[in-house]
Amino acid sequence: MNLVKRFILLFFCGTNFLLAQRSISYNDKLFATAKVWGFLKYYHPNVAKGKFDWDKQLFEILPLIEKANTKDEFSKICIAWIESLGKINNCSKCLKLSKQDYFDKNFDLSWMQDGLLISNELHDKLKFIEHNRALGKQYYASIGEGAQNVNIENEKVYEDFTWDNRNLRILTLFRYWNNIEYFFPYKYQMDEDWDAVLKEMILKFLNVNSELDYHLSLLELVVKIDDSHAGFFTEITKEYFGKKYIAAYYKIIDDKAVVLGFYNDSLALVNDIQIGDVFTKVNGESISQIINGNDKYIHGSNQATKLRNNNYSIFNGSTDSVEVEYLRNNILQSKKVGRYFFEDFNYKRPVKDKWRILENNIGYVNLGSLERDDVSGMMDLLKNTKAIIFDIRNYPKNTLYSIVSYLNSEPKEFVNFTRPVLNYPGRYTYEKYMKVGKAKGLKYANRVVLLVNEFTQSFGEFTAMCLQTGDQVTTIGSQTAGADGNVSKMELPGGLSTWISGIGVFYPDGTETQRNGIKLNYEMKPSISGILEGRDEVLEMAIQHIEAGN
């Protein structure tokens, strides 16, 4: 061996030795422990079958991990831990399953090769478990009937949880993070890298100094998955934003809060609030400052939905009134407005007509009110109209399949799914699901227009996708909520819970509805002037489209 080669060999050997002996931080150790603990929970045959109290195992391993000073010490602790879990039999079926065609945008076990924290021996142990993993029924997760989204099961609730219990805080973070890591179909679409989120949130969960701080840290964690289904509400977070509301509801337009209507007409009158009032400041802060300040606590798949979900963060508080600045008749004014508990409003959603015929013989159907049993009668009454407008700016009932049978001249595929694979957690199957419509010719041959906006969420978006397969369908409105797919619930320590979109939903061309929302032919958003004039500009655009014959 020449001198240069010998030097290179000695250099790398020395580097590896130093790397093995390098001191690692407690945060680094928790990061790696979260990964190993979660992987074993869903992959190790004995753990995945529920043979161990896996929470207790975490509590017992944490003191040992805390004492480890180097990669080798950390890895040896993990190796001994794995060996204590019992023998793993060779799995011949696992190899066959590994060769299947998977949707793998979420799948990532590259952390096993992390030279800073995982030794070669530990890496080999983990890879052996992957190749001989748990198959069949799992203890902590199952696939639901119907849409086949994941069910998270058999998790301890810890009703006596208190925020100052560090072990339970760590458990909460590890549990939630790994549930998302292995069972959230849209992990790859998040704005932030999920590993980076774990590193950031370890610091926050270790250093909380109050119950409020803990709940806000949890809320921030949930918001980071960018999912309109991923709500997290507790009495403590509600107190933080304030349980008292003003008597009006509103829409954020151009960084202003524009009044759309009232929760209580009498209280709105007492406080001199009018439809079309344009609020610009609350307690001296601009609306945009309030929105930006609360952004990390407001869930939503996209900005349109996050603005929708700001309904409790702009004017709410704990005091009886709030100072506001507003525009009315282009005159800037300020005053105090009363705040009330929501139950004081005795608010009831207005009852809307299921359908009606507009001027020029155009049918209008409110899918938020229409029942499945109404469909045949409705279509019979509207069969001679020039066009039908289906309003899905709401949460529709199960009418989509009954309606679409009138709109298609032939069966058409409208949706593909990804579903979690419990035999290989983190991986998904991608499958064509179903066609809608019948090969019997059109029952309704005229134009159809769908109206959508940020309130079109989940089943509303699924309904729009289905109806878009019609022969003459146009979609008008603004970005929808971007949260398609059945909801899966997650239980967290302390009796807390949250949700995720449990399956992936795609157009037949592979376009995600998650975060993007429903495909639009024409975009139209309400304007401040339109609200002041009492106009529904989205509906007006639909009528213009029909009349123009476009």
Unreliable runs, pLDDT <50, ≥5 residues? Answer: 3-20
Strand content: 15-25%
Topology, number of strands: 21
Specify Rg, calculated over alpha carbons. Answer: 28 Å
Write structural notes for this entry.
This protein is an alpha+beta fold. The protein is 36% helix and 19% strand. The strands form 6 sheets. Strands 4, 5, 6, 7, 8 and 9 form a 6-stranded antiparallel beta sheet that branches. Strands 11-12-13-16-17-21 form a 6-stranded mixed beta sheet, covered by helices on one side. β12 (362-366), α15 (375-382) and β13 (387-391) form a beta-alpha-beta unit.
SSE blueprint:
Layout lengths: L2 H19 L4 H18 L1 H4 L5 H14 L3 H13 L8 H7 L21 H12 L9 E3 L6 E3 L13 H18 L10 H13 L4 H13 L11 H7 L2 E2 L2 E6 L2 E7 L2 H6 L7 E5 L2 E2 H8 L8 H6 L12 E8 L2 E8 L1 E2 L13 E4 L3 E5 L8 H8 L4 E5 L8 H5 L7 E9 L7 E9 L10 E6 L6 H9 L5 E5 L9 E6 L3 E6 L2 E3 L15 E2 L4 H5 L4 H12 L2
Parallel strand pairs: 12-13, 13-16, 16-17, 17-21
Antiparallel strand pairs: 1-2, 3-10, 4-5, 5-6, 6-7, 6-8, 8-9, 11-12, 14-15, 14-20, 18-19
Helix pairs in contact: 2-4, 2-8, 2-9, 8-9, 9-10
Question: Summarize this, please?
Answer:
The chain has helices spanning 3-21, 26-43, 45-48, 54-67, 71-83, 92-98, 120-131, 166-183, 194-206, 211-223, 235-241, 265-270, 287-294, 303-308, 375-382, 400-404, 459-467, 528-532, 537-548, and strands at 141-143, 150-152, 244-245, 248-253, 256-262, 278-282, 285-286, 321-328, 331-338, 340-341, 355-358, 362-366, 387-391, 412-420, 428-436, 447-452, 473-477, 487-492, 496-501, 504-506, 522-523. By secondary structure, the protein is α+β, with helices and mostly antiparallel strands. Helix 2 (26-43) crosses helix 8, helix 8 (166-183) packs antiparallel against helix 9 and helix 9 packs antiparallel against helix 10.
